Description:
By secondary structure, this protein is of the alpha+beta class. It is 35% helix and 25% strand. α1 packs parallel to α5 (121-139), α9 runs parallel beside α10 (305-321) and α14 (533-551) crosses α15 (556-570).
Amino acid sequence: MFEPAGLVDLLAQVLRCREPRALLEALTIDEEGACGFPAGRTFLYMRGDAGLHRHPAESDDDCDHLLDAVHDALRTGRRTLLNAAGWQTHVLPLSCEGPPWGALAVALDGGSGDGAWRDRPEALDVLAECCARALSAHAGGREHADGAAHAGCAAHTDGPAHTDGTRLDEAAQAAQAGVFAWDFTADNVYWDERTCAIYGVDPATFDGKGETFFALLYPDDVPLLQAAIARVTEEVVTAQARGAAEEAGRYHLGYRVRHADGSVHSVAEYGRVILDDQGRPARALGLVMETGAEHDRSPRGSVSADSSRDSFLFTLTRALSQAITVQDVTRVMTQLARPALGAENLVLGIEEAGRLTIVGETAVAPSLSHLRGPAHTVMAMAALQEQALFIEDLSRHTGPELAELAATGDVPPRSWVVLSLGSTDHITGACLIAFAGPRKFDSGERTFYTAVAVILTQSLERALLFDTEHQRATDLQEAMLPRHLPTLDSLEVHSRYLPGTQGMHIGGDWYDLLPLRDGTAALVIGDVQGHDAHASAVMGQLRVALRACAEAGLPPGALLGQVNRVLCDLDTDRFATCTYLVLDPKAGTLLGARAGHLHPLRIQRGVVSEVVLTGGPPLGVDPAAVFPTTTTAVAGDEALVLFTDGLVERRDADIDVCVRNMIDDIHRWGNLSEQEVDLGELVEFLAGRDAPERIDDVALLAVQRVAGAGA
């Protein structure tokens, strides 16, 4: 298995490649234990005027499944995985800004070297980022450094937006720059030999820890860099939320480091913050160069530590103001505040029924796991005392709050900041921020952390209130949705509900299955406008009205007309879309009507198409609206899929295109032309193609006639 140093060396080689052949040579393993991929199983796909070009072109391994995976990666911008012929092929989209313009396909056969890549898939994402950066000129991709550092930190840009990107390329090509990768989750830093030299560190002894990097910084530049890291991280998360992640995350920083001999060296850092599949800051990747004191033009003389701390607090306040739930608050503290502060660990707890409950905690090294219990005890004590604790050297601290440490074994030199969260009339919780090694907290730092506690308390209390209201709304929604669907011998039925991903995480989507007196079955799917408790309440009212009209035997068009008038009379200021089908399992006859909803799908071997229903407007808009009934038939081996728009809708994409993309995905899934549809697996697949940018809730209902039902 390759070591982190081997990975960074590979990244450095890749960044210096400027054409596909050289890059493929750099990626290919040429010796046992090297960091790379098998020869003949690594391919580059790049878009051109004549279509998709592959390198190497002479290979004949382009199976349809691999090409489908490549097209999926190019369309979605997400890594895809293909298992075929004993190989596990990862297809990684390549892009610098905007949509992907290429893809890297690497095949792993399960060997010892491949295990490192399988165990650390995030390394593949870092590699793809380097490949895209290296080939951007060849592919016609556009690069620039965003210069996204805060005006009050030691960061700057020179000249037009493209200047930083050009300088980065030139530096890498001339081998004057070092390569780094910083894993935020594990707080691991990977440096190549050039980077180690710039920072004055021996590669053989470098421990790869984030706090080691902060310890090398010139003291006056620590708060400046903390503010810059927090700002860049917050900007890229915010940009991701509004669907514009390519606009942020790239940065250029200037700061100083102190070598072991006491000499001070100026460093320029060009990098990018990369998000994971969940939209969370996962790593930073980039280059560093030593600029020399005579070239150092960062505005340190006019920037004080206090103003930099104010900048950090401003960024933290802005990030926490967008945190809705307790989980969101925890994410900001662990993924933004902890890396920016250079902290080793961060633990967040809330008071519940007189006890401290831990709601967020970053990973702890096994050698430090025995400190977890004492840490939680100290947090509970700080919360009760309503006073922050500053423990400058854990190994030398003798206070009563750490009495149980003596029984835990050796205590390594560590420093803790334990913040009490709450107000004069109640306790909210506590937060512990742990640093490696002893640390002196001066009056400025103590004031700074007290301000962090005030900001965190306000955000946490707001999030706790939201979570309470959300739980009540969720309980209401669960009461309105069917707990289970009836079992019918003549139909196989599968359903799924997925909550929304933003706001209250609830909505008005629903599904239903109603056995009718004549032996037919009513299939219902609907979506009430809004994502709140009101939408759930209206959904419950519509379910009752639909059920009553169905039991009365009304045909689909007449039923929707009656329910439409009911919703208009309720004066809820909400509208709803709905599809109502009546299926005869024996004869296969299908009657349906639609009120502003998406068409259902019919799926048979090799064929996926829409069941086109003549539609009317959404329910609740026009009390005089008419909803025609459409008659069609369903074959015995056909599956019907009813769904709400949350399943297919994607940001800034036409809904018809989104439906077409889902149909294409179903075609590729399982090779439908060769096998019957497994309804359960189909529903799992559709629910599993969920996209990170989805915000709406989803209702999904799939049915299929059981063989022999017509006998």
